[in-house]
Design a protein that fits this description.
mainly alpha; 13 helices
Amino acid sequence: MTKAAARRPVAARPAARRPVAAKPPVDDLGQPGPPFERHSPFYVGFLGGAGFLLALFLGRQIEAIGSILVLIVVALFIAAGLTPLVDWLSARGLKRHWSLLAVVAAVIVTLGLFVVAIVPVITDQVAAITRNAPGWLDELQKNATIQKWNDDYDLIDKIKNYVQEGDFAGKAFGGVLGFGLAVLSLLGNAFIVIVLTLYFLASLDKTKAALYELAPASRRDRVRKLGDRVFRSIGGYVSGAFVVALCAGISSLVFLFVAGMGQYAVALAFTVALLDVIPMIGATIGAVIVTAIGFATDPKIGIACVIFYVIYQQLENYVIYPRVMSRSVDVPGSVTVIAALIGAALLGVVGALLAIPTAAAILLLMKEVFVRRQDAR
């Protein structure tokens, strides 16, 4: 290119025309107005009201299936309690799936033996207790304090009439039909819990892995470690509670046979073991029931029951319970009491049973998440 050509001015290109936005057609309805303001009080109030109604609807649906959710939670806790046994078998060289199969088979066989062998004995002994209860009440009336209570409030006579009528279940559940429905409901709930427990036990690792996948990838490893520790804590407590209750039941069974109450031993020992699972007051209630029947049978047997259960509860509180629970939960005593009271108020006996491991899990998460975050500031 020559110098003259380089100096020649370049003709300016015509500016590109901007497309003119087409005006919305004007019809008989008039010109459309601007978009609705999202921050207007009407818009915010409408969305807020719709969200409240949706939350209320979902809350009522959750309340409607509350009983099913309780069964699911109970099954999950029992599965967590059986998991340490599966881990123990796996640590002894047995493959994981064989360990699961062995634990599931043991649970099914135990339940079958209980239904076939223990339930009829308990039923017969409960019937014997019912037949002998009026006589025991007459014996209790010989006590001056109890006689005074009976004179003031007519307690013994009301209990005696209630027992002699023999219609506990009908009055408690609303007649024969209501009692039958209650029994069917109890059996159905037990079957659901057993089936869910077996499913959870077989797929607990996959269930936990699926839950951990919901956490962000950057925090997934920490969430996995915290979740595993929480499950170990819950499993340790549940399995430990069953071990403690089993010790209470077996020791009561042996004592009752030795003390001369063999005709009621199985039923009363089962009652003590069942109540011993309830934190704080369960063991005391079981001891009071057995002691009262012991005094009604023979004052010497009643005194022996008092001595035995005072000694055994000290042994359980300071030797058995600390050793069994040493690796499961670490909950202060005040928190244990508060958690059990709140759980019992919300879900009754089931809530009291699940309160302590739940409180342990909440304390662990607060310590590892909230407290650490506060310390880092």
